[in-house]
């Protein structure tokens, strides 16, 4: 452990991603776990964060006091829920630290509040923190631009574990936004999220989404470009939740030296 290590806070520490983040922070050079945060009624308060994550004791107890932790830290890793992320964004802005947001399912209002916090915090927000998915988004944008709507239809297919509560996934929407950008259209006005009954023919220029849920699938995403007599499929499979945690830590280290503002993983990876 070095004096120059970036001090990070993990919020939602007892969740699956929280535990993964604790493990990745613990094993990554240049960062260290400063605090682990849970909600005020959590049964895990007072537990050692390392024991919670299967590492053994590391001397960092789980607490329910995020602001106290934030003002002494340099960054927060947040894969919680929209309402919690909005609250943490405000606290990160007060503390003027890095806020890495991997939370999905945010409303337009939630998004606006997080962006407002970026006037004082350095916020990196993405529907997916992995290098592979963000590269998939770049490739999707290029493919959508090259293969026009008159001859090519775009469908985004995703599958996640049965416990996921938002649909389509944040990653599917990230891919859809990339496709819409390639086509020069607004995704909200051109996306088809549900098909049921007698739907009629597929409207030209729309971007369709199909959502699958089941088992313990971490994340499967494909974008299908369907033309007359041919298909182009771009896909990504996540087999280990740690890819998102590694991306989040990479983003935190990158944002440490940035000015306050709202960034994406494309900025972190130099793909913008």
Structural notes for this entry:
The protein is an alpha/beta fold and 272 residues long. The chain has 2 domains: 6-125 and 241-269, NAD(P)-binding Rossmann-like Domain (Rossmann fold), CATH 3.40.50.720; 131-238, Dihydrodipicolinate Reductase, domain 2 (2-Layer Sandwich), CATH 3.30.360.10. Helices cover 36% and strands 24% of the residues. It has 10 helices and 12 strands. The strands form 2 sheets. Strands 3-2-1-4-5-6-12 form a 7-stranded parallel beta sheet, with helices on both faces. α1 (16-27) packs across α9 (242-255), α4 (82-95) runs parallel beside α5 and α6 (131-146) packs parallel to α7. The longest helix is centred in the middle third of the chain and has 16 residues, at 131-146. The mean pLDDT is 96.
Termini separation comes to: 33 Å
User: What would CATH call the class of the largest domain?
Assistant: Alpha Beta
According to CATH, the fold-level topology of the largest domain is Rossmann fold
Element-by-element helix/strand order: EHEHEHEHEHEHEHHEEEEHEH
Mean pLDDT: 96
User: What percent strand?
Assistant: 15-25%
Main location: cytoplasm
Family: Belongs to the DapB family.
Pfam family, one: DapB_N
Enzyme class: oxidoreductase
């Amino acid at each position: 452990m070095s004096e120059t290590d970036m001090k990070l806070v993990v919020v939602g520490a007892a969740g699956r991603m929280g535990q993964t983040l604790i493990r990745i922070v613990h094993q990554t050079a240049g960062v260290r776990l400063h605090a682990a945060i849970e909600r005020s009624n959590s049964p895990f308060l007072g537990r050692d964060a390392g024991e919670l994550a299967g590492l053994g004791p590391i001397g960092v107890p789980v607490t329910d006091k995020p602001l106290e932790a934030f003002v002494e830290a340099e960054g927060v890793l947040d894969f919680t829920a929209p309402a919690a992320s909005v609250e943490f964004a405000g606290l990160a802005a007060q503390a003027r630290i890095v806020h890495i947001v991997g939370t999905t399912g945010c409303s337009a209002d939630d998004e606006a509040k997080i962006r407002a916090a970026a006037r004082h915090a350095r916020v990196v927000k993405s529907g997916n923190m992995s290098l592979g998915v963000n590269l998939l988004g770049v490739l999707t944008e290029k493919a959508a631009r090259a293969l026009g709507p008159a001859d090519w239809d775009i469908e985004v297919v995703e599958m996640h574990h049965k416990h996921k509560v938002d649909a389509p996934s944040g990653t599917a929407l990230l891919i859809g936004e990339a496709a819409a950008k390639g086509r020069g259209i607004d995704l909200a006005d051109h996306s088809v999220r549900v098909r049921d009954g007698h739907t009629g023919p597929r409207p030209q220029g729309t971007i369709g989404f199909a959502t699958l849920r089941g088992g313990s699938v971490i994340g499967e995403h494909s974008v299908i470009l369907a033309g007359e007599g041919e298909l182009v499929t771009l896909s990504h499979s996540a087999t280990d939740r740690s890819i998102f945690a590694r991306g989040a830590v990479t983003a935190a280290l990158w944002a440490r030296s940035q000015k306050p503002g709202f960034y994406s993983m494309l900025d972190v990876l130099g793909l913008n």
